[in-house]
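Write out the 3D structure for:
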Amino acid sequence: MHSLVGAVTIDLLIVVLAVIFIVPVILGFMDKKIENKNYFLFGNVDLRKHKSSAVIIITSGLIGTLSHVLLDVFHHDFNPLTYPFEQYYSFNLILFNDLYIANVLMNGITGLFFILMLYYWYLRNIE
């Protein structure tokens, strides 16, 4: 599932199934537990009521799965990026040719973006 083929097949199938079957259950459970309903707003859309189109689900899923696989190239020492088309399929561009530094840097950058996302999401929902 860390190859380009896996990202557009198996990973995408998992994303679509999760959005259709798992996310509504989780949102329904959270709706009963959380008093501040602003937490369900994302881009001024109430996630509990909004139904995404298949095009949006698939496009978002492809962006997520492909970006995950392509970002892994910079901080994993083994990447079956072109599997199953090549027998030798380990492909990597480890930053600074040091796996430890690459992992710290890539995880730090993605962690920072995650914290910023949560921060701005929280600021919009504290009304």
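The chain has one domain: 4-124.
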